[in-house]
Specification:
Length: 424
């Protein structure tokens, strides 16, 4: 593209970036990889490798079962409290447990039982499939209906459209705050208050929000939330998820999975289940101590960097991309499938192209420009780029746009086939 002023701008933004120092705290094994998949699986923090060898060699290897009392038993609360601080929740309102899908099941089921005999659950068609499967499953179990607010442009949904779906029959509204495809971000406070007006409870999935955008559970009066730790929190593959329940609701909601870790005085081994009287009642069984431990260094870094600085850089990164898209990509068949207003987006960007799949393959091919650029492909025609402010740089976005343009102007995608791997 030979656009020196765009490259100069990237270099200037990188030089002025207050978060630039965080990049070296992550493992970058191969300098020719440009990684834009931090919204699917965040990178490995260097501190995590060290911590994990301590957890296995010292805590497990030497101290064995003593480690439960020394550090393991309350780790889910301790990390939960740290996550609480980045989502604007209070101490004791967040805990690490299971995965996001199971947490969504436990909390939405608890909410529906509490809301009996209300008849509907409301969600939308931008939601993550796992969330919709679970909500539909619960609706079926209870003879209820799952109502889906539909996006007209497959990208955004106007908050006002919820008003038509909500009434005294609505038991629960469950939505993903930042949509996994388009990155559209809801006005959490507005939707929550519309739902509360008809007495519905609200459950937000924060998987694509936590560690990337400012959140304030207390201020926005959110009832319940769940979210992943392996995306922008960099907790590692399969790291357990978190759940949040507003303090005032904790003793009125009951987990449908009544395991011993959620029972009061679990080490009394009572034969009759009594729920714990705090957030721990939503635990099930023994936590995966090793992968849970891996969450903490990533969360510490988010706290260190500060969510508002992270959000500033995230907006700058995506605005820089959109600016280049307008002048370099738009005329070559690429279409922006994320909101163009940065205030309505999370930290990833989606574009579409008829040749999206083969373009994705070409992006990963080093022989074109020396870089393996890693995005993810979302069927049928979307390519998604996650911008992780702690380790992505503006110059990486410059290289990305240059390659996207070259692949199409020189029809390089024709060199690749349509065969798909399982994980895209
Ligand atoms: C990534 C993601 C999940 C993942 O759920 P798991 O049960 O942890 O696999 C759930 N919901 C949303 C919105 C996601 O983006």
């Amino acid at each position: 593209m030979g656009n020196n002023s765009s490259l100069d701008k990237a270099k200037k933004l990188d030089a002025e970036d207050p978060l630039a120092g965080f990049r070296k705290k992550f493992v970058h094994e191969d300098p020719s990889v440009i990684y834009f998949d931090g919204n699917s699986l965040g990178k490995l923090p260097k501190a995590t490798s060290e911590l994990l060898s301590n957890v296995t060699d010292k805590q497990w290897g030497k101290e064995l079962i003593d480690s439960w009392n020394k550090s393991w038993l309350n780790k889910n609360i301790e990390i939960g409290n740290k996550i609480a601080s980045i989502i604007g929740a209070k101490e004791g309102e967040v805990i690490i447990s299971d995965n996001t899908s199971i947490n969504l099941y436990k909390l939405s089921k608890a909410a529906i039982q509490f809301q009996h005999p209300r008849k509907t659950i409301v969600s939308d068609n931008l939601n993550f499939p796992s969330d919709l499967y679970i909500l539909q499953g619960i609706a079926d179990e209870h003879g209820m209906k799952l109502e889906m607010v539909a996006s007209r442009d497959e990208m955004t949904i106007d908050s006002e459209s919820f008003i038509d779906y909500l009434n005294q029959d609505t038991g629960l509204v469950s939505l993903t705050h930042v949509a996994f495809k388009s990155a559209f971000m809801y006005d959490m406070e507005k939707i929550t208050s519309i739902a509360h007006k008809v007495g519905a409870l609200v459950l937000w999935d924060l998987s694509h929000s936590v560690g990337a955008v400012p959140l304030d559970m207390s201020q926005t009066n959110v009832d319940m939330a769940v979210g992943c730790t392996y995306k922008y929190l960099n907790g590692g593959p399969g790291a357990p998820a978190f759940l949040y329940v507003r303090k005032e609701l904790q003793d009125t909601l009951f987990s449908p999975v009544k395991g011993w870790f959620g029972a009061a005085n679990m080490f009394d081994f009572n034969l009759r289940y009594q729920p714990e009287d705090d957030i721990r009642r939503f635990l099930t069984g023994t936590p995966p101590i090793i992968s849970q431990a891996a969450i903490e260094p990533g969360v510490d870094m988010i706290i260190d960097a500060g969510v508002s600085r992270i959000r500033n850089k995230s907006i700058q990164l995506s605005e820089y991309f959109v600016e280049l898209y307008e002048c370099e990509l738009k005329s070559f068949g690429y279409v922006l499938t994320s909101p163009s207003n940065a205030q309505l987006r999370g930290s990833h960007i989606s574009i579409s192209h008829n040749e999206a799949f083969r373009i994705t393959k070409a992006l990963m091919d080093r022989s074109i420009d020396g870089y393996k650029i890693v995005p993810d492909f979302r069927a049928p025609h979307n390519i998604r780029f996650g911008f992780a402010p702690l380790y992505n740089a503006f110059e990486e976005i410059y290289s990305l746009v240059e390659k996207l343009k070259t692949i199409v102007t020189k029809k390089l995608y024709e060199n690749y086939d349509d065969k798909k791997d399982v994980v895209t």
